[in-house]
């Protein structure tokens, strides 16, 4: 598990330190096989070394915690993907981008599995993740339209959404079922598929 390093400064820094302690505690518990759904706030607080009241001073509830954690740990994942799209990255850069996404997924696999689990029954968590993926799909749609000129906007939108959601699911399944040694071949295969789709006109 990899923590997100922050620099504590004053009261604001203390708040960030407590949040980091909670994030680290949850990732440890999940990595050890705990279910996020079954985890109680008291258990999380004990693992983080804080009082239950301190937890609620930082997070309204567990779904809020999960959203904040996921938003933080996936920031680099979405930055990698968005940078490739916005820089008009070429085919040979796409494999490395996908490989980076796979690596990030592996680093936080238990947390992202928990996200998928909770999103299936918690509307707020589902809405958060849907908006996050669709925001990336919007960036991808703009590239599709930019490269191929004026096209039927609904077609470009569907194509971008399919790439965004299809890639997210493919990476999740790959990480859950295949070893790290298969990552390079997987990334190249996904890059080939994405690139082929992006060369086709949307209608």
Walk me through this protein's architecture.
The chain is built from 10 helices and no strands. The longest helix has 26 residues, at 123-148. The radius of gyration is 19 Å and the shape is elongated. The model is unreliable at 1-11 (pLDDT under 50). The protein starts with 9 loop residues before the first helix and ends in a 5-residue tail after the last helix. The chain has helices spanning 10-31, 41-48, 52-58, 62-73, 75-86, 91-107, 109-119, 123-148, 153-177, 183-198. The chain is an all-alpha fold.
What order do the helices and strands come in, and which of them pair?
Layout: H1 10-31, H2 41-48, H3 52-58, H4 62-73, H5 75-86, H6 91-107, H7 109-119, H8 123-148, H9 153-177, H10 183-198
Please tell me what the overall shape is: elongated
Order of helices and strands: HHHHHHHHHH
Computed Rg = 19 Å
The averaged pLDDT comes out at 89
Work out the helicity level. over 70%
Low-confidence region ranges: 1-11
Structural class: mainly alpha
């Amino acid at each position: 598990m990899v923590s997100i390093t922050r620099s504590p400064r004053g009261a604001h820094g203390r708040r960030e330190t407590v949040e980091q302690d909670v994030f680290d505690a949850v990732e440890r518990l999940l990595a050890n096989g705990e279910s996020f759904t079954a985890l109680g706030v008291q258990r999380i607080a004990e693992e983080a070394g804080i009082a239950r009241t301190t937890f609620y001073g930082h997070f309204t509830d567990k779904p809020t915690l999960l959203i904040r954690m996921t938003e933080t740990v996936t920031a680099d994942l979405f930055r990698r993907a968005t940078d490739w799209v916005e820089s008009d990255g070429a085919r040979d850069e796409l494999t490395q981008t996908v490989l980076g996404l796979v690596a990030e997924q592996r680093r936080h696999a238990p947390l992202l599995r928990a996200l998928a689990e909770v999103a299936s029954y918690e509307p707020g968590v589902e809405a958060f993740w849907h908006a996050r993926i669709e925001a990336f799909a919007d960036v991808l749609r703009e590239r599709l339209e930019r490269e191929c000129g004026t096209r039927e906007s609904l077609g470009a939108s569907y194509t971008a959404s399919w790439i965004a959601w299809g890639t997210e699911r493919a990476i999740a399944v790959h990480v859950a079922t295949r070893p790290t040694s298969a990552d390079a071949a997987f990334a190249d295969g996904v890059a080939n598929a994405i690139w082929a789709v992006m060369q086709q006109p949307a209608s």
